[in-house]
UniProtKB/TrEMBL annotation, chain A:
The gene is cysA. It comes from the Bacteria. Residues 28-37 have a biased composition (Polar residues). This is Sulfate/thiosulfate import ATP-binding protein CysA. One of its GO terms (molecular function) is ATP binding. It comes from Lacipirellula limnantheis. CDD domains: ABC_CysA_sulfate_importer (cd03296). Keywords: ATP-binding, Cell membrane, Membrane, Nucleotide-binding, Sulfate transport, Translocase, Transport. SMART domains: AAA.
UniProtKB/TrEMBL annotation, chain B:
It is found in: Cell inner membrane. The complex is composed of two ATP-binding proteins (CysA), two transmembrane proteins (CysT and CysW) and a solute-binding protein (CysP). One of its GO terms (cellular component) is plasma membrane. This is Sulfate transport system permease protein CysW. It comes from the Bacteria.
Length: 407, 302
């Protein structure tokens, strides 16, 4: 895919007074929303050691390139989410980290755990705990036997005694809140319970790294929400370096310390959930994380224009006019009935619905582009918007992307 | 909260019924079609299955129980029993190992020539047993490719026990693999991946994870393979040479007795093989039910 010249730009208007309702250039929304958490995490990252370090990983299946020169570092104790659509290479990367798949043998390719080269080690020698999407529990073994498996198969010299194994398994089962199910078989458990058994089984071998491949993908939405909050709490408790693969952006943003967005066999962007959500570096990340309204504008001489609106865009100062894509999140709008003189654009309300945490207003602009705006319920009630009426939309924030090859 | 009672009374169901013949529902065939299909099936089964089966026992017992049991008091009969068990005892374990190895390779790995291997496993189903017997004669017989070399080294394969064992192995080798491949493919290799990620080595993975998961299908394959090994006639007949007391298996022994017009003895021995078949059938049905359950479980967890 063509790389895109990307920049977070802040809307400014031709009229000088309009700057007041937009953020200062360079700042962004994130800072006002979530102040302290992020900087804490940042400090943690800086002071700790590198746990997983993979460099220049490529993987080809036949003619399909699943990974294209990907490098990634993961800090000790961090919970990282690999996020991307199916086919983006995220699961392949996880399996290569685990040793279930071998990367293409290119010079410069390396896989290191805690500064140790593990690229020649088999999965069983890497001390990883792997949790599969479909649990992969041993169907003919009880829950207890499943969790004990990793300890039982150890060589005599390193195998714990029977009593130790029993103690450890029981401790793990109570950690995953399944102590009373130890005699059941996997087929007698619900999906969520099975996945917790799988997690306990992976933790039983005391892995250095926990790898989870779409662990909640096969579960229904309700169970999934409960489990991911639980997983986050568990991580807070045991602080094991964890990598989670998911295609669910909500899951990644909620659970992870750091999100690595993947697309087309490459890493698009990595950063804290706030960074990737609020300052997307690429068009793909912008569209993949959260909902966006897409508009087509133009850039010229450091400005991007979209109808009456103008956005500073210092990255293109050329004389020649270029097409640009302008993104605005549904919650970054203000709706007014009457114009207050600031730059806005009119749109007609086609539908509203307020059964939810926010009210959603669907609108259509004069040039037939559809726009979604999300308003707090009280604001929505106050405005008493009617379907069919025409209102003024005031964007609070906008991001401009220009394809780099046209520069 | 209770819903308010509705002021509606339904007519009693009896009043819906129409007098006269029961009308067929949308998913049923008409009465005479049903009787025709069921009747012709029963007639066919009676003619080709039940009557011959009953005839075996009737013929065997025609001269009473004494004559029946007297048929087993014969050195050649016991030699045939021993040889049958020997051939079965070698060919079934051999095919067990081969079948497990082949289906493990086919279901859990990708390699070149995989479909060729599957075709080869099916070959004995496609080839007539007589032809497969002849292949061994062609290979190991006196005038065969390896015949002269075997003769100079004093190794007897054709018209001897090794030939019978080889022929039996050939005709029974698809059974175990054919049973295991679909189940193993359905189960996938995730459990094995989980096992090795937990530190298990190849043997531990195989014996603790792969094998227990297919045990019912394996047993089923073994039973089918045993039944076929004991009952095989064509291929064994070609390579055996019919040396009484030496190279006759039970089916061949029956043929000899029959050709000598010793009908009671022939049918008495045949009744033993029939009983064996009935036991196999019962075991097979029980196992099929268990395998079905394994398969359903495998497809449900995916």
């Amino acid at each position: 895919m063509a790389s895109l010249q990307t920049q977070h730009a802040v809307l400014a208007s031709k009229a000088p007074q309009s700057g007041s309702f937009f953020d200062e250039p360079g700042s962004n929304v994130r800072n006002s929303n979530i102040p302290s958490q992020k900087s804490e995490r940042q400090q943690e990252q800086d002071s700790t050691t590198m746990s997983i370090d993979v460099q220049h990983i490529s993987k080809t299946f036949g003619t399909f390139r699943a990974l294209d020169d990907v490098s990634l570092k993961i800090n000790d104790g961090e919970l990282v989410a690999l996020l991307g659509p199916s086919g983006s290479g995220k699961t392949t990367l996880l399996r290569i980290i685990a040793g279930l798949e071998a990367p293409d043998p290119n010079p410069g390719t390396s896989i290191r755990f805690y500064d140790e080269d593990v690229s020649r080690r088999a999965v069983g020698e890497r001390q990883v705990g792997f949790v599969f999407q479909h649990y992969a529990l041993f169907r003919h073994m009880t829950v207890f036997e499943n969790v004990a498996f990793g300890l039982r198969v150890r060589h005599k010299s390193t195998r714990p005694s029977k009593e130790e194994i029993r103690d450890r398994v029981e401790r793990l089962l109570s950690l995953v809140q399944l102590a009373q199910f130890s005699k059941r078989y996997p087929s007698q458990l619900s999906g969520g319970q099975r996945q917790r058994v799988a997690l306990a089984r992976a933790l039983a071998v005391e892995p250095k790294v926990l790898l989870l491949d779409e662990p909640f993908g096969a579960l229904d939405a309700q169970v999934r929400k409960g489990l991911r909050a639980w997983l986050r709490r568990l991580h807070e408790e045991i602080h094991i370096t964890s990598v989670l693969v998911t295609h669910d952006q909500e899951e990644a943003l909620e659970v992870a310390d750091r999100v690595v967005v993947m697309n087309n066999s490459k890493i698009e962007q990595e950063g804290s959930p706030d960074e990737v959500f609020h300052s997307a570096k690429t068009q793909f990340v912008m569209e993949f994380l959260g909902q966006v309204n897409v508009f087509h504008g133009r850039v010229q001489r450091g400005k991007a224009t979209l109808g009456d609106l103008t956005v500073d865009y210092p990255h293109y100062s050329g004389e020649h006019e270029q097409p640009a894509t302008v993104y605005m999140r549904p919650h970054e709008f203000e709706i007014r009935r009457a114009s207050n003189g600031k730059p806005s654009f009119p749109a007609r309300i086609t539908r509203t619905h307020s059964a939810g945490a926010v009210a959603r207003v669907f609108l259509e602009t004069e040039d037939a582009a559809s726009v979604l705006v999300e308003l707090p319920l009280d604001e929505f009630a106050q405005l008493a918007l009617q379907e069919g009426e025409t209102v003024h939309l005031y964007p609070k924030n906008a991001r401009v992307f220009v394809p780099s090859e046209s520069q | 909260m209770d819903a308010p009672a509705l002021p509606v009374t339904l007519e009693s169901p009896e009043s819906w019924q129409v007098a006269g013949p029961r009308l067929r529902t949308a998913t049923e065939e008409s009465t005479w079609v049903r009787w025709l299909l069921v009747g012709s099936t029963l007639l066919f089964l009676t003619l080709v299955l039940f009557v011959p089966l009953a005839a075996i026992f009737a013929e065997a017992l025609r001269k009473g129980w004494e004559a029946y049991f007297a048929s087993f008091d014969n050195a050649n009969f016991w030699a045939a029993v021993r040889l049958t068990f020997l051939a079965t005892g070698i060919s079934v374990p051999a095919n067990l190992i081969f079948g497990v190895a082949a289906s493990w390779a086919i279901a859990k790995f990708d390699f070149r020539g995989k479909s060729l291997l599957i075709t080869l496993i099916d070959l004995p189903f496609a080839v007539s047993p007589v032809v497969s017997g002849l292949i061994y004669v062609l290979l190991f017989g006196m005038t065969g490719w390896l015949g002269p070399w075997l003769a100079t080294n004093d190794i007897q394969i054709i018209f001897a026990v090794p030939g019978i064992v080889l022929a039996t192995i050939f005709v029974t080798f698809p059974f175990v693999a054919r049973e295991l491949i679909p189940l193993m493919q359905e189960q996938g290799s995730e459990e094995e991946q989980a096992a090795i990620s937990l530190g298990a080595n190849g043997w531990q993975t195989f014996f603790r994870v792969t094998l227990p998961n297919v045990k019912w299908a394996l047993l089923y394959g073994v039973i089918l393979s045993t039944a076929r090994a004991m009952g095989e006639f064509g291929a064994v007949s070609v390579v055996s040479g019919h040396i009484r007391g030496k190279t006759n298996t039970l089916p061949l022994h029956i043929e000899v007795l029959y050709n000598e017009y010793n009908f009671v003895a022939a049918f008495a021995v045949a009744s033993l093989l029939t009983l064996l078949a009935l036991v196999t059938l019962v075991l097979k049905t029980t196992l099929e039910w268990r395998i079905q359950r394994d398969l359903e479980e495998a497809s449900r967890s995916v």
